[in-house]
Design goal:
The complex is a heterodimer of chains A (465) and B (281).
Chain A (H helix, E strand, L loop, with lengths): L15 H4 L12 H8 L9 H4 L7 H9 L3 H9 L5 H7 L21 H15 L13 E5 L3 H12 L3 E5 L8 H4 L8 H12 L4 E3 L10 H6 L2 E6 L5 E2 L12 E3 H10 L17 E5 L3 H12 L4 E6 L10 H9 L3 E4 L1 E8 L5 E14 L5 E5 L5 E3 L3 E4 L3 E2 L3 H4 L26 E3 L2 H4 L4 H21 L3
Helix pairs in contact in A: 2-4, 2-7, 4-5, 4-7, 5-7, 6-7, 8-17, 12-13
Chain B lengths: L1 E10 L2 E7 L1 H6 L5 E5 L7 E9 L4 E7 L3 H7 L6 E2 L1 E6 L10 E7 L2 H14 L3 E8 L8 H6 L3 E6 L10 H10 L6 E5 L2 H14 L3 E4 L15 E4 L2 E4 H4 L2 E3 L5 H7 L4 H14 L7
Helix pairs in contact in B: 5-6
The chains are: A alpha/beta (465), B alpha/beta (281).
Amino acid sequence: MANMSLNKVKMPEQEPNTRNKNFLEVALGYTEEMAREEATRCLNCKNRPCVSGCPVNVKIPDFIALVAEGKFEEAYDKIRETNSLPAICGRVCPQESQCESLCVRGKKGESVGIGRLERYVADWFMANGKPKVDRPAKVNKKVAVVGSGPAGLTCAGDLAKLGYDVTIFEAFHVPGGVLMYGIPEFRLPKTLVQKEIENVKALGVEIKTNMVIGKVLSLDELMEEGYEAVFVGSGAGLPSFLGIPGENLNGVYSANEFLTRVNLMKAYKFPEYDTPIKVGKNVAVVGGGNVAMDAARSAKRLGAENVYIIYRRSEAELPARLEEVHHAKEEGIIFKLLNNPKQIIGTEDGWVKGIECLEMELGEPDSSGRRRPVPKEGSEHVIDVETVIIAIGQTPNPLIKSTTPGLATQKWGGIIVEEETGATSKKGVYAGGDAVTGAATVILAMGAGKKAAKAIDQYLKSKKD
Amino acid sequence: MFKIVRKEVLNPSVKLLEIEAPHVARKAEPGQFIILRVNEEGERIPLTIADYDRSKGTVTIIFQEVGYTTKILGEMEEGQELMDFVGPLGVASHFDGLKKVAVIGGGLGTAIAYPQAKKLHSLGVEVDSIIGFRNKDLIILEKEMAAVSDRLFVATDDGSNGNKGFVTDVLKNLIEQGNKYDMVVAIGPLIMMKVVSNLTKQYGIKTVVSMNPVMIDGTGMCGGCRVTVGGKTKFACVDGPDFDGHEVDFDEAIRRQQMYKQEEKRAMEKHECRLGGTVNG
């Protein structure tokens, strides 16, 4: 008989007022008892709606049934059949809008805590499991993967499982892409990311760092070096700015720069690590997505007293996950909703001293279906801050586009692909993840990497040598 | 890892390292830069490529010990290895259709001006090079510059080499004497590039400067290297580092260079503490 509790087993967390001063993980994870209890809430229903809600189709009811029985190793194997990065997905997937949104239990009460269970199983395996390496027969064909973020890692892992010789080319000095430079330690510990990457390498994938494809080598040169297909998962690396006066004052960061300094370069450990970061007493973060929440919560941890999220629409339109907004509020982040920056104000010697905003009200719905924010006349006011972080989005990096003749892209930079296969306009070149969609989620990028791996396999099998 | 195959001390605070980096050497062109990291805790710093040898697969960098990272870099010896070395990054300099060019190097900037003069010289362009230093003990690359220039002028601020003055004084004289330059390449401290650009603007001579702002990735990802050029924000890493000197907002660039002054001081204190111990271990 299933456990009919209406609520998920609660996730233990660090206290808000403790955690907003450290970079340790916020959510502490289930104990074995909690995991098994939560697993019994799954009805193991026939039509398994949750599975179709998962971009990589994890066999959710099957692994949960194994958790309920305490068979964690088997549960891990079940997840790994379709998902090569479970410890990451269990932490950063927006389950509430994917698998969990379709859970039958969610019709009355809370859905099953699928993400929490996935995390438990992955963590259990990292602590207790023995990685199995059963490498398939080699097909002796080389595939290049550009970028070692979630799309690239997934594509590479799937192709390696099929016997291809896969090399990942990473521009930074460590692999992981946005998992390393973007998502903060307190949401996704970096040692854990590296362990997951080790698991992908154990499949036979080689990773070459410090390789900026588009500069060091072009896609055509990769093909000339014997790679028969290329997957481009280079992410959305180009930060957008507001285009308002004062954006080049000292103390204004793009969220990319701010988070890269903190996460990848470990500036929160300066001067033990050499990369510095500057955080004022008062910090304004412009934007309302997950990246904005990450930047705001990081700034708080770096010692800022007042951290403001400045967002031009209302709370209902915040693009960030509910959980992130909730966590940010608990940690003392101040939400200045319905506010739009007009200019950043500087001191005489060029440092930020404030941000001038206009109050907004919501008008008619726009093309995105959200109500359009309209400025209230005469509502200008200044918020005193010394640091401004612009977190209004990123677009794909133009380095590959500009050095690859025949690669069709959207006006805003996204690589144009065939939806089902990830095939680009250039023969043998596939793409997926943020490089195609613009900034989206880890799991969507993984789904795209998966589809492309399948398509690349078909392409190479049908290709005559 | 990237091995140091040659080290030279050019003056007490300026050092040259030749690094084994075949992928970078294969494509490097004058005007481009690399990003390096000395060790695991290291920051990523950009340095302009001073020279490259495609057949040996090496890239030469020349740097002044101004901060913590350049200090520990300067303490490294032949045979030791750098953790990371990535490039070539940025857009290579364009030198089409030029007959006569003045190449100006200020202090350490001479190291970056050198590959430009060398390239121009190899293209058959007439090159007048002007290099300036605070005093004669700081002069670097005099022989090398002479070898790739039709005429070389070396000026010192204090006149200790017998030729007192600033590079701008020399340039102004040359222009006034009737030398017709199609282009001026000016590389050095921001203030020098600003003064040269102001001068050449009066004469209407196209002037290219090389910017070297703070950056992290060098691929357009962080936007930390923002420079205002012709009223528009550019990223020095992907749009530059060469820009039209008449369009660059130097005052803003000078301000932005001050961003981490305090932190640099703290990092240097760490360096002082480490002295006597092992620096790179």
